[in-house]
């Protein structure tokens, strides 16, 4: 276990993202070792982790799930998420909203399992692996891998053995890597108090604009194409064509814009 974690640690599973309020969890540094795990409907605890979960969402999670449900990002945010200030003093964390049914199951849970399984959130996809991104104040990243152990989870008693890499391949986590790392760099910088020292909070216009670019991707699209955005920022034609066709590319532009807008750096350049 690492005990001297930096203040700007940003967990790729969004800090205790699979935590439930009535069951403690232990977190073990995996390193190059292997772990045993399997989840299927023959395991006695099947879908137990899908109840009463305090699960943070990455921006790319919103993109995948809103597309699966044929919803706009605004509709998805209203119907399926809640926000709260936690580790970022001036920027809200976005959490998946649980249902009001007994046991507070996930809205997308049925007796047969998850109805958005191909586009399930990164935290669900990664569990029990916890890829932890350490986002430093200078924007650099470093990665550690942990394994979570919840008392109720019997998947660890299964015989299938994994490395961190083989589990990530099996769970199709690769498409999440680039947008999640880009967000981790931003989140690590948002964890300090510099913006609050300037008198900003989550309702200040700069933070609301940044939230839009990260989480409300359909509104950000209108901002890009219906404002002076393209006359102010240099977006190469090839990238612009990709942005028009792919919400993931649009999100990457949004995250790059946040770095320029909030921190005056990053790949996106302003026109002179």
Task: Enumerate the strands of the largest sheet in spatial order, edge to edge or round the barrel.
Answer: 1-8-9-2
Shape label: globular
The quaternary state of the protein chains shown equals: single chain
Order of helices and strands: EEEHHEEEEHEEEHHHHHHEHHE
* Termini separation: 49 Å
Tell me the Rg in angstroms.
19 Å
Bin the helical content. Answer: 25-40%
Structural class: alpha+beta
Total beta-strand segments: 12
Percent of residues in β-strands? 15-25%
Number of helices: 11
Report the uncertain regions: 1-22
Give the number of domains: 2
Chain-averaged pLDDT = 88
Main beta sheet strand tally, sense and closure: 4 strands, antiparallel
Describe the fold and architecture.
The protein is α+β, with helices and mostly antiparallel strands and about 270 residues long. It has 2 domains: about 180 residues, no CATH class; about 80 residues, no CATH class. The protein is about 40% helix and about 15% strand. Strands 1-8-9-2 form a 4-stranded antiparallel beta sheet. Strands 3-10 form a two-stranded antiparallel sheet. A two-stranded antiparallel sheet has the order 4-5. A hairpin with a 5-residue loop joins strand 8 and strand 9. The N and C termini lie far apart (about 50 Å).
């Amino acid at each position: 276990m690492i005990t001297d974690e930096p203040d700007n640690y940003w967990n790729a599973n969004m800090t205790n993202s699979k935590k439930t309020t009535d069951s403690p969890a232990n977190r073990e540094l995996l390193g190059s070792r292997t772990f045993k795990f399997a989840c299927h409907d023959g395991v006695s605890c099947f879908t137990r982790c899908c109840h009463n979960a305090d699960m943070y969402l990455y921006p790319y999670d919103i993109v995948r799930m809103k597309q699966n449900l044929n919803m706009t990002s605004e509709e998805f945010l209203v119907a399926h998420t809640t926000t709260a200030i936690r580790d970022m003093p001036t920027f809200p964390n976005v959490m998946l909203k649980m249902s009001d049914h007994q046991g507070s199951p996930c809205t997308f849970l049925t007796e047969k399992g998850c109805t958005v399984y191909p586009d399930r959130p990164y935290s669900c996809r990664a569990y029990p692996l916890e890829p932890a991104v350490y986002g430093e104040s200078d924007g650099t990243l470093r990665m550690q891998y942990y394994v979570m152990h919840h008392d109720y989870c019997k998947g660890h008693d299964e015989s299938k053995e994994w490395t961190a890499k083989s589990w990530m391949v099996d769970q199709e986590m690769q498409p999440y890597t680039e947008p999640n790392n880009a967000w981790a760099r931003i989140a690590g910088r948002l964890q300090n108090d510099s913006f609050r020292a300037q008198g900003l909070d989550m309702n200040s216009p700069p933070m609301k604009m940044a939230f839009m670019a990260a989480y409300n991707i359909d509104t950000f699209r209108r901002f890009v194409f219906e404002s002076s955005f393209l006359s102010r920022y240099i977006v190469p034609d090839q990238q612009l064509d990709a942005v028009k066709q792919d919400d993931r590319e649009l999100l990457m532009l949004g995250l790059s814009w946040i770095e320029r807008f909030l921190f005056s750096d990053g790949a996106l350049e302003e026109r002179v």
